[in-house]
Amino acid sequence: MLSRCRRSLSSTLQHDSWLLLEASYPRAAATHIASSSSTTFRRWRTGKASKSFAQNQKQKTQVAFGGRPKHGFGDAFLTERLPNTKSNGPGKSNAGRAPRKPPPNPDPYGKALSFPPNWSISRALESRVGVWSHLPHVHRRLVAFGVPDADIEPILDAFVRQIEQEQLLQDPDIAEKYDIERLAIDRDELAKGRALDEAMTQLLYTWAADPATSPTLPSTVRRESLAQMANLAKTADLSYPAEWFPVARAMRRKVIMHVGPTNSGKTHNALRALAAARCGVYAGPLRLLAHEIWERLNKGQIVPLGETPDADARPDENTNFDLEPKSAGAGAATAATVAVTKDGHAKYARACNLRTGEEIRIVEDFAELTSCTVEMLELDAQPDVAVIDEIQMIADPERGPAWTHAVLGLPAKELHLCGEETAVPVVEAILRDTGDELIVNRYERLSPLSVEESSLDGDWGLVRKGDCVVTFSRTGIFNIKREIEEATGLRCAVAYGKLPPEIRSEQAALFNDPNSEYDVMIGSDAIGMGLNLKIKRVVFETLRKFDGTRERWLSLSQIKQIAGRAGRYGLHAEAGGTVTTLTPTDLPMLHKALATPAPAVPCAILDVGGARLEALSHALPANASMEAHLQVPTYISRRQRPFGVVRHARLPQIAEFLDTRGTDLTLAEKMTLAYAPVAWQDQLTMEVLGEFCRMYRNTVLVDLFKALEKAPFVETLEGVEERAAALASSGVAAATAGGDAGEGKVVVEAQGEEVTDARELQIIETLHKVLVLYLWLGNRAPAAYHQTEQAFALKTRVERALDVGLQSMSWRRAAKAKGKARVPLPPSVVASAVAATGAGPGTEAGKIQWTRLRAKSGDDEKRELAVKRARVLAERQIEMDSEAEVYSY
Predict the structure, then answer these.
(1) What is the mean pLDDT of the chain?
(2) What's the CA gap between 322 and 354, in Å, rounded?
(3) Which of 68, 208, 264, 283 is deepest in the core (most CB within 10 A)?
(4) Where are the alpha helices (DSSP H) in 54-145?
(5) Are 260 and 445 in contact (CB under 8 A)?
(6) In sequence order, what are the beta bridge partners of 538?
(7) Residue 387 pairs with which residues in a beta bridge?
């Protein structure tokens, strides 16, 4: 009966709704919920639904839902609530309602919300274990991890009994033996139900692996079940990650941290040390940053540490990295202080290769310098100097492992870590175990940042030149762009996450160019990293962001990083920058956020990979789903402070796709897809990825253009290119005849056809993501994803189409707003239109000569692909046979 009630609950309660149960709710009451006759569940056999649990408001036993159930964990177990938030009552949800406006005086950056001070982790676990043990998703998870259905009830009963009788958590010897305090990074973590769920499951597996547990269980529990749980816990143990890297442990590295706020010059000393090194590597979070370092090192634009540039050397202001105090701006620069020069010098030029997820550029086969994204960092190399940028991303739930593994395992003699002050405590804790030397260099902001006395009071007409408006949705960006252009006549550039980095860089260049007539930047939090922007004032449209589940307040680090983009040192005649908000209600919170020190990052994220992943798969059932594989590190892996584990934001979508459309793929191939740059929420992308998998499964060779037929990608791109060609032909004619507006400008009809619209723009943005995914997979399986040259060519076409589409959108709208019948286009728009037709300028002077790792062409390519295909098929068969042999035991 109980298992059926669990299944019924699973169809009505959300996966994490247990967090909304009252803190004092006893285990017996939780059982009563599942069996109470006053609660009507969905019918299991017919599939028809009667009155649901959530709608039954007259139950004798009610579950107190204290917030918005659709938000999952939220503020479930908090003893205090944010001001002006109201409960919807038992079982009520806000699903389908319009988002509520922010309360007038919320204070998310004030007092931390947590359990009472006298509550320990043990007390928190003890008070919730009864409810937790009866939750349907806990039962499903244990089955997925390999615990037989018949053994789950007695195991959980014994586990709960020992905790409730204070035989487990209250025993000092056992608490020390199990290291209970490790189960949460800090007490505030316990306010998050997901952390509590993870801690419960980890404790269960630690308890099951203890030899002393077996005698306490009923004789009906199979000892093989405990052995399987113990084996899985041992295999998934991440307690000593420093031992994974013996080469790094065999040396005592010198680790130098360069920390400070945005616009503090914290990166340049590290880059100069890299330029002076015999061999070295730069690793950053974005391919644009890696590309910039690659280009500057090859051109000799970074002055090596200890060198003095020529007296006439000019500093380069167009860099995405912080400028040094004395090298920012021509007026302040001297020959002795210029760190990054505009023209470069041959004597400083170094051969440097580029490695990103999508592209590998080889300047020299044995070049001693490499610029890469962090995920592409080779941990078996032994550079003299390594620079790891944006070290605070070590706590990123998905990408953090790349930074953690670099800090733990890169065997560099001198390791430079650049980023925010918030990362210092975590790095200090990591290096206490490794025995490396740590030096912390702190930098101050080079120009003042102040909050304006008033907001825009909701009036976009108050936006002025040099402003950057920050919002957090693609739709919102284009709506605000339209409103500002209609209200002020100013043209707006845009930058947001889905826009390709290359186009974000182009839009930034337009905004920075005083002659481009693009006076305002509208962007998302994508402006906080990797873009060189000459912003005078940052305007927050809101301080809240939808995170895929609910609207939440921006973190202190996010606010500080975005606001810090204003007033970049040396880029404006006036010293300093300002920041404000659109609405008056957000302004006090902005004041408080900028005045409050950002908390230290909570942990360094670890992941299971390589040999550990293979061993983990053998400890799970042979038919284990991908969801089970991806959940093991989170729910079972034992780790010590200051480490956490990776969390996949789109785990349900990833697991469902790989389990349904990734059939017949090996575990390694599935894990490659799980970590690929896939827009899992985008239906068009998923259709194309499904076609990739089908082709790979059937023939190994993945035909890019056949896969693209799954969506209207090519026809949309060609339509944009045709309209760009018409604009380009007008540009050529105007340049020849002098144009109606004089000075070679092109004049177009205000009511004419747009080069692109918002719908087409979204389609070709998705096409760009698909091409990047194909190139990423091509770097890892070149025999299968063999059309990388064609993909690069198509990617270039897409970027040109996006460029001209974005640039041309503003001009007709501005003409219509001003009542003009015709509008002149600036040369930049015409140049983009010409480039989109393939008639752009030729090879640039001084272009770096490099080769791309790629498959051969013609008959040689066909023969080589046939051989590679046969080899891949043979290797996959050997791997599958090996897995089958292991599972046969």
Answers:
(1) 76
(2) 22
(3) 283
(4) 121-132, 136-144
(5) yes
(6) 468, 579
(7) 282, 416
Structure tokens at 532: 């060189």
- Tell me how far apart the alpha carbons of residues 807 and 720 are, in angstroms, rounded to a whole number: 13
pLDDT tens column, 387-423: 999 999 999 989 999 999 999 999 999 999 999 999 9
Cis peptide before 712 (omega within 30 of 0): no
Are the C-beta atoms of 433 and 560 separated by less than 8 Å?
no
Nearest CA-CA partner of 57 in 90, 33, 10 = 90
Residues 53 and 13 sit within 8 Å (Cβ to Cβ): yes
User: Which residue type sits at 738?
Assistant: G
Alpha carbons 304 and 301: distance in angstroms, whole number: 9
**Residue 758, both tokens:** 């918002």
- For residue 404, the Cα-to-chain-centroid distance in whole angstroms is 15
Structure tokens at 466: 């040099």
Looking at the DSSP bridge assignments, the partners of residue 493 are 521
Task: Return the pLDDT at 119.
Answer: 54
- Measured CA to CA, the distance from residue 91 to residue 55 in angstroms comes to 7
**Residue positions counted in the chain:** 889
**Angstrom distance (rounded) from CA 306 to CA 272:** 9
Residue found under tokens 């400083």: 348
Q: Look at phi and psi of residue 820 and say left if phi exceeds 0, alpha if psi is from -120 to 50, else beta.
A: beta
Token duo for residue 327 = 């090298």
Domains 242-442 and 449-595 share a fold: yes
Instruction: Round to whole Å and give the CA distance between 821 and 571.
Output: 37
Q: What is the largest CA-CA distance in the chain?
A: 96
Q: 369: which strand partners?
A: 280, 352
Where are the chain's structural domains?
Answer: 2-235, 242-442, 449-595, 708-841, 855-889
Comparing C-alpha atoms, which of 98, 99, 108, 573 is closest to residue 331?
573
List the single range of 110-114, 207-211, 366-370 with lowest mean pLDDT. 110-114
Helix (H, G, I), strand (E, B) or coil at 605: strand
**Average pLDDT in the 718-729 region?**
79
Reference 131, options 9, 18, 11, 252; nearest CA is 18
CA–CA gap between residue 791 and residue 770 (Å, rounded): 10
CA nearest 208: which of 189, 225, 191?
A: 225
In this structure, which topology does domain 242-442 adopt according to CATH?
Answer: Rossmann fold (3.40.50)
d(CA 129, CA 627): 24
b (16+ CB within 10 A) / e for 590-615: bebbbeeebebbbbbbbbbbeebbbe
Does the structure show a pLDDT above 70 at 355?
yes
DSSP code of residue 577: E
Average pLDDT of the residues in 290-301:
92
Q: Give the pLDDT confidence of 834-847 residue by residue, as tens digits.
A: 566 654 434 344 56
Do the beta carbons of residue 305 and residue 337 sit within 8 Å?
no
**Inter-axis angle of helices 827-836 and 713-737, nearest 10:** 130
Question: How far is it, in rounded angstroms, from Cα 534 to Cα 757?
Answer: 28
Which H helix or E strand runs over 158? helix 149-164
* DSSP class of 170: S
State residue 41 phi and psi, 5-degree precision. -105, 165
Q: How far is CA 593 from each of CA 191, 420, 445, 451, 554, rounded to the nearest angstrom?
A: 21, 16, 17, 11, 10
Please tell me the class of the 449-595 domain.
alpha beta
Between these two residues, 708 and 120, which has the higher pLDDT value?
708
Q: DSSP secondary-structure letter at 341?
A: B
Q: Which of 506, 879, 863 is nearest to 664 (CA)?
A: 879
Cβ–Cβ under 8 Å, residues 394 and 367: no
Q: Whole-prediction pTM value? A: 0.79
Contact between 49 and 13 (Cβ < 8 Å): no
Other beta carbons within 10 Å of 440: 14
Q: What is the DSSP letter of 851?
A: E
Choose the weakest-confidence range: 2-16, 524-538, 681-695: 2-16
CB distance 470 to 524 below 8 Å: yes
